[in-house]
Amino acid sequence: MTIVLGAIADDFTGATDLANNLVRGGMRCVQVIGVPNTLPNLSQVDAVVVALKSRSCPVDEAVTDSLAALEWLQEQGARQIFFKYCSTFDSTDKGNIGPVADALLERLGASQTVMVPAFPINGRTVYQGHLFVGDRLLNDSGMQNHPLTPMNDADLVRVLSRQTPHAVGLANRATLAQGAEATRQRLATLAADGVRHVICDTVEESDLDVLAEATVTQALVTGGSGLGQALPAQYRKQGWLADIAEPGRLQPASGSTMVLSGSCSRATLAQVDDFLARHPGAGFALDPLALAKDDKQWEQALAFAFEHLEQEAPMLIYASADPEKVKAAQAELGVEKAGFLVEEALSQLAVTLVTEGVGRLLVAGGETSGAVVSALGIKAMRIGEQIDPGVPWTQATLGQREAPLSLALKSGNFGGVDFFTRAFEVLP
Length: 428
Ligand SMILES: Nc1ncnc2c1ncn2[C@@H]1O[C@H](COP(=O)(O)OP(=O)(O)OP(=O)(O)O)[C@@H](O)[C@H]1O
Ligand SMILES: O=C(O)[C@@H](O)C(=O)CO
Prior knowledge:
alpha/beta, 3-stranded antiparallel beta sheet, 21% strand, kinase, Four-carbon acid sugar kinase family protein, transferase
């Protein structure tokens, strides 16, 4: 039994986002953390998403890890490879989207791939190659303040051209409106002209269906999870998928609840405020400047958490802060150290508190989720019910727990304003 789709995700929340859409498309999907040391049982699996922490690491590391994931997915017989990155194209002029896509194409012996970041249901659209978040251009959406990958240019052809030596082209909406065959022709014409990466307009969900039909036989596709919601139907048309599988049912959740947030996105800041308004006194703020001095603040956070564990009360521990505070910490500590201090503190709190009884854990932020999940030693996750578009509940088996850990990894920009409260209400 071979798998149909093998996906390589550049962060952990993006991995669960894509896995969620594949499951909602009727595929049996498993998410693994990194390349597995031991082969999981894939006999009843149609798609595997390999979650990496390769979005903001050095380019060479991102390429090496992505190629290792590709090799493993090819060994599982994947018919198509999907490189999943952020719907807001989170990257810098160094990469890592361009260099990783180039390396995957070269290893696959392919000459072209499509770049489809859009996820219209969550307000991510592309028009004439320009990325919008809602009605704002990317560089005016708040993503210009991202702590690690500030996005200051919405023109994706220009952005990607700074990351790769190869030609970047555009398949615009006028082409997509003519249907899948016209889109295929456009891609072929661009390929004949040596264009290796094609940014694809996407304004409505129907554009994703056209792109999925036009690219289902391409060795590599890349983008956000939106394309992942359209591809399963095309796999069925190809005869690669037998039936529509029901979403996996998670086991009943158990243990105390906890929210950890390292995301500084506008959406997450609003979710933090909403939680604190609903649960006065249930939040503890971490500050990287304090964390840099000594262990005092971390110990205070732990004491806060133990107090709430005893009361079985909801709790939020967060470093989420407005751009001015983030920039001040980065100015004093450096971007990388500030980020590391927060990720380290949150991940170590997660390890201690899961051992002490937390069984329902919500983590906000992709890099933050990567640090927490890796510190917990999680190797694979089952995908459950969707909470909001792009964010499902998942479950993972941990050595130290009899019952599985219920885990929601929330992409920074996703989820309704009441997400930190409502997520636990929809958990089975
Ligand atoms: N107060 C702070 N000062 C400086 N850096 C911070 C602060 N709080 C969080 N960070 C860092 O900012 C980064 C946030 O990235 P993360 O990917 O976790 O969130 P996000 O980008 O909003 O989520 P996503 O990637 O899912 O969109 C992390 O490295 C985190 O450690
Ligand atoms: O596509 C998105 O926006 C998310 O899945 C993501 O990548 C968050 O890091």
